[in-house]
Structure formats: structure tokens, C-alpha cells
Amino acid sequence: FFSALIFFSIAFFNSYFKIVLPTNEPTQITDFTHIKTEKYYNILKNDVDLRKTLVNSTALIQDIGYITLCTMWIAKGSNYKPLIAFSLFYLFKLINSLSFSFEYIQGYIWETPDYHSLTYPMNQESNFFFTYLIGLNFLLFLFLNEFKYGPSNIIGLTCLFNTIFQFALFVCMRSCYIIDVGSSLLCAHYFYYLSEDLDPYLQGIYSISNVKIEDIKLIRELEREEEIIQNIENEEHCKIGHDDVFMHRSKLKDKLKEEDSN
Q1: Does the predicted model carry a pTM greater than 0.85?
Q2: Alpha carbons 212 and 79: distance in angstroms, whole number
Q3: CA 113, 93, 147, 74 torsion: positive or negative?
């Protein structure tokens, strides 16, 4: 009851007091982060070598993360989640780019990398709605963090740092608006979880064995339960049902193997 009351109160106060709505009609596009970062913009504008070094650094980190994810996925991947998430993410960006375009921001000083990057565009790039490079970095962090392998987790955390670094760099170089950064992170996060829902269907279509979609979902749920229990064991140093979950999962896999052989 209280949750519903708070929900309707927020909607009422917003419509009555215009909390999240502008009180005056905007006359132009204004990004206050550009105003706040004017000092750093002037530094980057006047120092070409620094600007190129920062762009090359963030591009290199993103390329390393992309190569690492591709390698880990080929070697240890057991699902199509990265393929689904990245495909939908780029498709959504393409639809937006073909449907609407902004003029470049006044003072645009974005640079392309000095080497042929795998993930960075090699021409003048408009990063407006949305800044897909930041979303790409965030997806790399999310997927690399799934692999229980030290080096890939370290590179994943580096991609997370690179996401924050790119955000500051793009804003300071007038490559995008702040809203482009937020929408990119939201889209990346959404497509990451959407890929988890769509993956069982893709595995059901392209899997060599005749594994049912319901069985794939059940295995996923059991894997999540096992991961939660392992986290509890690490935090509280106790064993709660780990063997039971492992036993049920083993039985299910044996059952799937028998159905496949038949």
C-alpha cells in the first residue's frame, strides 16, 4: 500500500509542481556539463598531442577488451548472449542514426585514433543519441565479468574505468551531449539483460543437440542458484545446499544426454 501511495504521489507532485519539467520554454540546446568543463575543453583544444594521446589510450583499452571478450567467448563461451546484445545494440544505434541527426556541437574537437582501431570509427564521428562507444565499453565490462577468470575480470574492470574516462573525454571534447552518455548506458544495460532472455530461444534453434528451451532455462536458474549459494558460503563461511543444487543439475544434464543419444 505504501509503495503504491509513494508511486502515485511522485506522479501527482511532478504534474502539479513540475519538478522534472522546465518552467521556461528552451530557446536552444544547452548542456550544462559543457559549461562546467570549459576549462578542460580549452586545455584539450590547445594541446593537440595530449588530445591524441588520450584518444589513442581509450581506443586501445577498448580494443583490448573487445579482443579479450572474443577470445574468452570462443574458448569458454556457452551461450549467444554477447552476440545478441552487441547485435541489438548496434542495430538500435543504426536505426536512430538513420532516423534523426544532430548538427555538430560548436567547438567540436574530436580526434580519430592514430592507428586502425577495431572498435573506434576512423572518420569524423557524430556521437549523438547515443554515444555507442561508451555503451560498448560498458557491455565489455558486463560480459567479461561473467567469466570466472582473473585476467579477463581485470580487463573488464579496466573497461569500466574506460567507460568513465570516455564519458569525461567525450564531454570535454564536445563530441556529445550528456544525455547521449546516459542513454547509451541505459541501452547497453537493457540489451545485456534482454540477451539473457533471448539466448535460450537462439540456443534452441542452433543447438546441435535437441535440448528444449525449458531445459536451458532450468539449467540457467540452477546455475544462478549455485552462484548465489557460493557467494553466501564466501561471506558467511557456511554450506547451504550446494551439493543438492549440483546433484539436480547433474541429473538434468544426464537426462539431456540420454534424450540426445535417443
Answers
A1: no
A2: 14
A3: negative
